[in-house]
Amino acid sequence: MSFTSPLFLFLLPIALLPLMLERHHSRAYSWLDLIPRDPLSDIVGMLLKVLAVIALLFIILGVAGPHSAQQKIKKVGEGAQIVMVMDRSASMDDPFSGASNGRAGETKSTAASRIITQFFGQRTSDMFGMVTFSNSAMYAMPLTQNREAVQAAIAAAGGAALFQTNIGSGLTMGTSLFENIPDSGSRVMILLSDGGGRIGSDAQQKIRDWLNKLDITLYWIVLREPGGLSIFDESYKPDSDKALPVEIELYNYFKTLRSPFHAYEAEDPKSLAAAISDIDQKERKPIKYYEEIPGRDYSQHCYFIALLMISLLLAVKYLEVRTWH
Amino acid sequence: MTPQKPAMEFTYHIGWRSRGRHPGRHTSAQTGLGMEFRNHAPLISHPDPRRIDLRQTLRDPFEQVWVRVFNQKSSVPVFVICDLSGSMGFSGHSRKLDIASEITAAAAYSAHRVNDPFGFIGFDDTVREDWGLIASNRVHGAMDIAERLRHYHPAKVGADGLLGVSDYLKRERSLIFLISDFHMPLEALERALTPLVRHHIVPMVLWDAAEYRSLPDFGIASVADAETGARRTLFLRESYRERILQSFEDRRAALHQLFMRHQMPPFYVENGFNADDLSEYFYQFVAS
Q: Quick one: A307 and A285 in the same domain?
């Protein structure tokens, strides 16, 4: 049992006031010694004070906000710890040029969030985390079991996009979500972007170390415009005076990772769904995790008890003698 | 506060001989111009030729001249000793101090009518000198006191001053109306009465029906003692009411017994003061 604002507990002595203060509006009687003692009356008199004390006590307790401590329950489930790292750059607001599924105008980001929602809906025991990035990474959701929060985070990622693509910062923040979380044995980071971005060599080294240290499998889903450049195109040769396109450069870098890596290309929502379901198939290992159960708030109960006491006092007030003579 | 009623008059007499020299209406031990034959005295020692008893003179073989001697009628000091303790502030059907005021006015007026000096002594925890009135034949001082009583709100004090009251009384035997509700321990009362027994005391017991007889039938009441300030919660109900009534009846019996032991029949005032009842009291209890 702990309190939200324990400072209010210093007010507790106030609850004893009814014991010390006498009622102000009692009527004068000539000689009380002449009235025989009556145990029932004494009990009633004491009871009135006790009622007042209890009412005050529970009001103060209620204000202090008692709640039970939050508990952690160990759960074992099938699934993975999945962190979505989602590109929110401006190009994600463009539609897939394909017109499959009758959703001609669906932008990449909405399609992604729709399909991820489906994916997430199938995996009931996974832990999800979410990071979005454009110019820099945005911390959206830590790894959690709270499905509503994750749904909301995914839905929020479908909104209007921002500037550019900074994959490096998205990945570093994505890996950082796994820190301080016990390893369930299946750690997955899904990077969803529509193209590449350059990662500085410092960041490259850092990402490589972290992915390795934290044992994270990286899946990269590239949303590609049909007919566009494919990262799997081995034969692509750039013009001699130009550098390799960023996607291919990034792909080559990912291939150098010591941790497992898979890349997918999606040209339309259907191929995106296929990629996701492939990941779904691969990541089915039992995981152990701790579920946090928030403490119960007892202030309502306190107020209810106080209300009960006060209504009893009011009932007694109604019984009070008004016409003495 | 009720407007002051005109002072009522009652008649009173005493069953003993006054020693007062001032002429009045009461049987006296003083010789003087009266109707009550006392004895014969020789003219030499009692030179009052108007009262020569011819028959006694003729019958005397030593031929002395005899004079008849009479007792005069004398006045008797009348005192009201009034309890000013907290309980006298109790206001039920009427305020106790209002009734005390009526009694004071009536006693002062009645005393004035028969030329008896009237004095007043008030007491609470001590004898209140600011409430004292030296016995005199001037009635307006007493009327002032009666008026002051009607406006007085006693503090939370007891009635222990009754013990010291005898120091303020005359040495001469007086008629004393002791006005109180006698809400004090019986032992204290008995101790206080002992030095007063040389006077003629009429205990006037002021109780109010609201104190016990017309209590509410049912309910919870918080009451505070008018003298000690102690508070209690009363859960009034049929059985408890009867116990309170019984307690008051016991108290009345105990008080009655105590007063009768000192030969002071008490006079109960409960539903307002009626002067005729007091006259009746004197006819009933005091041999003339």
A: no
CB contact at 8 A, A205 and A172 = no
In this structure, are A286 and A164 located in the same domain?
Answer: yes
What is the span of the domain harbouring residue A12? 2-69+296-319
Given an 8 Å threshold on Cβ–Cβ distance, is B225 in contact with A25? no
Instruction: Tell whether B27 and B120 lie within a shared domain.
Output: no
* Partner-chain residue, chosen from A30, A33, A48, that has the shortest CB–CB distance to B233: A48
Query: In this structure, are residues B176 and B81 in contact, taking their beta carbons and an 8 Å threshold?
Result: yes
% of chain A at pLDDT higher than 90: 3
Segments in A177-245 forming alpha helices (H): 201-214
- Establish if A270 belongs to a structural domain: yes
Number of domains making up chain A: 2
Indicate the pTM of the whole model. 0.63
Together in a domain, B229 and B265 = yes
* pLDDT 10s digits, A171-188: 888 888 777 777 666 788
Distance from the Cα of A33 to chain B's closest Cα (Å) equals 9
**Residue A195 Rama label (left phi>0; alpha psi -120 to 50; beta):** left
Q: Chain A: residue nearest B250 by CA? A: A34
Q: For chain B, how many structural domains are there in total? A: 2
Q: Is the minimum CB–CB distance between B110 and chain A shorter than 8 Å?
A: no
- To the nearest whole Å, the CA of B110 is away from the closest chain A CA by 30
Domain that residue B44 falls in = 23-74
Largest CA distance in chain A: 119
CB atoms under 10 Å from CB of A59, counted, come to 22
Looking at the domain assignment, is residue B102 inside a domain? yes
B214 touches chain A (CB under 8 A): yes
B201 occurs within a structural domain? yes
Q: How long a stretch of residues is chain B?
A: 288
The answer, for B21 touching chain A at a CB cutoff of 8 Å, is no
What interface predicted TM-score (ipTM) does this complex get?
0.71
Q: What is the pLDDT of residue A203?
A: 80
Residues of A in contact with B183 (CB under 8 A): 30-31, 33-34
pLDDT digits (tens, 9 = 90+) for A271-296: 777 877 777 777 766 666 677 777 78
Regarding whether A224 and A174 lie in a shared domain, the answer is: yes
Chain B closest CA to A36's CA: distance in Å?
A: 6
Among B87, B227, B235, the residue with its CB nearest the CB of A41 is B235
Reported in sequence order, the residue ranges of A48-162 that DSSP labels E, i.e. its strands, are 66-67, 71-79, 81-87, 127-133, 137-144
Task: Say if the Cβ atoms of A28 and B222 lie within 8 Å.
Answer: no
The answer to whether residue A129 is domain-embedded is yes
Across the interface, of B185, B221, B225, the residue whose CB is closest to A321 is B221
Residue A152, both tokens: 């909301």
Residue A41 exposed, middle or buried by CB count within 10 Å (0-12, 13-18, 19+): buried
